[in-house]
């Protein structure tokens, strides 16, 4: 008689591989099959979490929220249990994505107050809280969260590079000096955990930093190379960041015709993004679009 548990374990590994490669149809078929072959509570929990990831990959935020709420209720999860904290982190992120930022911020504040200050999981809470505060325009508190989360260094390379990159991008977008230090930290940490998307985004920031101190044509060529490599990587974040970098520098030298095309191009990728930071990018692009229209109005007059 076949061992159903081994089959489910195999299916779950395949599902994770499907999701990483963006094969959502295959992932859905495999999830349905896995559900039919298990009665184990631990395996059912894993399947529910993978359903959430599938819904997110498809941009079905409401479906993911319903699944998480049901999961928390059915499993009677507790915020004080560090092993279960990641699901509350995900719930807060989904609340923020759907426009319930205050609820998301409250959830994260509760997680921090209910946990041990030395718990490494606090770093992930701080990164999520920092993103929410940043999106709401609370730059100082957001920066404080990112800096605290980035203190783990080589003990938590993924956490460190994610926190450092968020802080670097925020400082760069605000026109504040010092972002290059955090971008360089990301460049050193991201390869350790194969965070190629984060490495590329940090490299784009550093290319921007060096823009005015070197050959302008060479740097524009470099930014276009990052754009092409981002398209090959398939990351929405890299595609947005590379276009936003070119929008910034080409706007500075007055190439508004190219800028208008890049803004429209970036908006296409923005529509595909199903993350809290999508609204953050939206604000920046709207500001650039407004600036472009002002320039066009000045030309016509």
Detailed description of the structure:
The protein is an all-alpha fold and 301 residues long. Helices cover 77% and strands 0% of the residues. The protein has 15 helices and no strands. α2 (24-36) packs antiparallel against α3, α12 (216-233) packs antiparallel against α13 and α14 packs antiparallel against α15. The model has no long low-confidence stretch (mean pLDDT 78).
Secondary structure layout:
Layout: H1 4-20, H2 24-36, H3 41-57, H4 61-75, H5 85-97, H6 101-113, H7 122-135, H8 139-149, H9 157-174, H10 179-189, H11 196-209, H12 216-233, H13 236-252, H14 256-272, H15 277-300
Biggest β-sheet description: none
Instruction: Please give the number of β-strands.
Output: 0
Q: What is the alpha-carbon Rg in Å?
A: 21 Å
Helix content: over 70%
The overall average pLDDT, rounded, is 78
Report the end-to-end length measured between terminal Cα atoms.
Answer: 82 Å
Instruction: Indicate the overall shape.
Output: globular
Q: Which class do the helix and strand fractions yield?
A: mainly alpha
What is the ordering of alpha helices and beta strands?
HHHHHHHHHHHHHHH
In the predicted model, the low-confidence regions spanning at least 5 consecutive residues are: none
In DSSP terms (H or I, runs of 4 or more residues), the helix count works out at: 15
Q: Strand fraction band?
A: under 5%
